[in-house]
Amino acid sequence: MKLLRGGRIQASGDAPIERRDILIDERGYIAALLAPGEPIPGGMPPDSGIPFDREVPSRAGSPAASAQRRGTELITIDLADRLVVPGLVDAHQHLDKSHTLREVPNPQGTLDGAIAAFADYATRLTREDVIAHAERTLRACSARGTVAIRSHANIDPECGLRNAEALIELRARWQDRIRLQVVAFITSGAINNPKGKGWLDDALAMGADVVGGTPTRAHDVDAFLDMLFDASQRFGRPIDVHMDEHLDVNAVHFDALADRTLALGMQGKVVASHSSVLSALAPDEANRIIDRLAHAGIGVITLPAANLFLQGRHADRLPPRGLTRVNELAHAGVTVACASDNIRDPFVPTGSGDMLEIARWTVLAAHLGSKDLGRAFDMACGNPARLLRIDAEHGLKVGARADLLITKAEDAADLVAGGALERCVLVGGDAVGGHLI
């Protein structure tokens, strides 16, 4: 067992900061949140303690391995007034594409250009390439505080099932460091291909966690959505679609998504990523759709890096930001998360894997207020945990897994405003990113 004492905990972006000692059981779950000086349940005395600048057990193979947890021994670590928040959650990535920018340029910076460039490159992409690029990104994300990621894996004629197979392998390889969900992402040449349904079924049978696709690019949007929802029902998987990632007010498909979600009782199991076109619609129509999303329990993920880079390049003045209506969605009760999307590939040429950076971009690009830094933190932490349906085991509460971010920051808002130079990331109570410094 492990006792983290002398820290300040903040369960969410707007929650009060409390002084609590965190008792972590031998399984790596939070067993108790104790007031300073409160006796440990069961009467177990703490050991003499490990200062915060000493090395502690690590699953990541870092040097932090000088103390080992044995049986019911209690290791006590003094956090020296550091801030503890829940680990960050990245609800939308494309690990199979990350770090391919040098091989796959997109000089025009358009979505169509990125899709075409990657489709050409995918014919030469190997499974080993996917794993190497993805692991580089996973290491960066873990070190910066991310404890869970949902990644889309291309399924198309060029990739076949190769990318999904690679990410499913990484899911097992990284299970002690990051919870990884794999989306079977029907995209590119698979969208209008009669073989697409079979490829989707094969990926789900192989173990993909989520059904995904891009309905807007289908010749028959209704038929494509029917295929996705049918697979979801047969395999018992949730749905996460790239929804209307454009600014064309004549191509809006949210009603079709909401209709199927309600008809099949899938409230809370469907996510509409991007949803950019909402920002191009007149307010009355946008609000009507937003109310439908709220009623259907459909979550939304905004992706500021990709939308800022790819959208609005047609405009010769006042180019739009391309993000969805984040404020209106949140005020209507829709669960809204932000996420990295692509990292250093033809879709987004930048990216560090830092969800605090993405939260910061969301504040600026989505026109949140100066008092909304805590809300932006929740969009990178608790909200995406709900969309990934891992919220029962995520957070600073008894019964949650001890997946935590420890820093010298003042509070969660401070983390969004400026980040943290020193970070320790715990998964199951063990250091996996950096160490307790």
Give a written overview of the molecule.
This protein is of the alpha/beta class and 437 residues long. It folds into two domains: 124 residues, Urease, subunit C, domain 1 (Roll), CATH 2.30.40; 306 residues, Metal-dependent hydrolases (TIM Barrel, Alpha-Beta Barrel), CATH 3.20.20.140. The protein contains 13 helices and 16 strands. Strands 1, 2, 3, 4, 5, 14, 15 and 16 form an eight-stranded mixed sheet that branches. An eight-stranded parallel sheet has the order 6-7-8-9-10-11-12-13. 54% of the residues are buried.
What's the short version?
By secondary structure, this protein is α/β, with parallel strands linked by helices. 31% of the residues lie in helices and 20% in strands.
Task: Average the pLDDT over all residues and give the rounded result.
Answer: 93
Helix count, per DSSP?
13
Alpha carbon gyration radius = 22 Å
CATH architecture of the largest domain: Alpha-Beta Barrel
Give the total of domains: 2
Shape call: globular
Task: Report the sheet with the most strands, covering strand number, pairing sense and barrel closure.
Answer: 8 strands, mixed
What is the CATH homologous superfamily assignment of the largest domain?
Metal-dependent hydrolases
What portion of residues belong to β-strands?
A: 15-25%
Query: Which structural category fits the helices and strands?
Result: alpha/beta
CATH class value of the largest domain = Alpha Beta
How far is it from the N-terminal to the C-terminal residue, by CA?
Answer: 20 Å
